[in-house]
Input
Amino acid sequence: MPDVRVRIAPSPTGPLHIGTARTALFNYLYARHVGGTFVLRLEDTDQARSTEGFERDILEHLHWLGLAWDEGPAAGGRAERGPHGPYRQMARLPLYAEAAARLVAEDRAYPCYCSPDELEADRRAQEASRQPPRYVGRCATLTAAERAAREAEGRRPAVRFRIEPGVVAFDDLIRGRVEIDTAALGGDLVIVRADGTPLYHFTVVVDDAAMGITHVIRGEDHLSNTPKHILLFRALGHPVPAFAHLPLILNPDRTKMSKRKSQTAVRDYVAEGFVREALVNYLAYLGWSPGTEEDVLPLAEIAARFDLAAVQKGGAVFDRARLEWLNGQWIRRLADDDLVERLAPFLEADWAAGRIDRNPGPAEIAALLPLVRERLPVLGAIGELVGFLFSDAVAIDPALLVPKRWERATARAGLAEASRAIDAAGPEGFAVGPLEGALRGVAGANGWKAGDLFMAVRVALTGRTATPPLFESMVALGRERVLARLDRAARALEAETPA
RNA sequence: GCCCCCAUCGUCUAGAGGCCUAGGACGCCACCCUUUCAAGGUGGAGACCAGGGGUUCGAAUCCCCUUGGGGGCACCA
Output
């Protein structure tokens, strides 16, 4: 058995899509599982929509996900890798031209002079008579003289591949045997545009053949197109690879996941603070499962257990809530210094955007880890959680300062008493245990519920009702600022309390 | 319209004829823990395995039909 070679062939017409990432992941998993080669190829023949920025985004995020390719194009300062280059289709144009010329020479393809208007008219007529859209074959049997006449008119031909009648069958690695009558393929297929640039169905086959791809693992949306590819492989005289069509990732309404209905750009998940481990873990479990009851598995472990035959056939709805849970699981599993490193950019961004007044250093972030680790569904939530520590002043809604069971005056008194007690305890008493003791003492002496007092103090210090543990937060804030915020909050209540 | 694929709790899934009065996870609801929020723990609701026919001693698992959903049918990828 020849070595397994798989590939991911993204088109740089948008930022890396969740679906592309999942397809890349499954190719990667299969390659790693069987010790094969994972190839990256850029399908940039749609020059109207492809951009360098998207290309960079795709490469960058595949890399971010940890899906390293064994062969691929030169990019981001890295040299091209692999013996089957170039790995960018626009650099392979001569190869397609040569292949197309061969097909035309063998009359397996022919020049087509139909104009876009003519084709559009055909399509409309078919639609009107409720016929499936299909090329009518106007140029299929043109004589040399007829072709010459059209050339003389200045018409530039596209190239169409003849779809022969018959049934094409293949054994999909996930779905089993699939048989499709070529009559359902829409007629002869354009493989080269009038401007000379090749089309997807053609380039994908020419390249998969040239690059020795043995297994084509891709989304189910290509299942119906597979016969076209098989026909092209045969016409080109190349062995047909094995196919595996993955179930689609779905919007909540069970349609194919789309930008319109879902967040599809990987970069947006990165920006929110999803970690690669969680995204990879989640994506792998969208359509595959280890068959055990383990939910949290690292990439290497998934690769070790991966099996194409175990892949689900039905589409899977992308469930953000589950991804967030998994993200929390992974955040809890990260090493301290690793987590600090990943958190830092988010705090820096908060600082740059003016949401906080100071950008904390690594040591400072590290000290907060025990307070935040279990409270972050995404890394980007860090600012909300501990921003009060790095802000000169916090905005406080006076209504929140008064716990449900309390009067405004009680809250004012409570804050004042708390401030007094903390002040009286001195710097030596400004530690988690003593602070809690002091405030419990204040509550007890006044007949207040400790929880109510704590809530008033919490809001005074942070502006929020949900925060990390209070006394740890106080220590992190520092004595001076605790006293200042307590006094300021008490005064705010005073100002609003009628004498 | 034509062709193809699919079908287990709301969601992701386990299940490859008897272990299933269908298991786990997310989400949801209680309770416990608790200074808030999380996390964690315990428990609960939630799927007559889309429906109907077969095959079989026995079917979520095999076959057929129906229904439903999705995808494809470009000089997009």
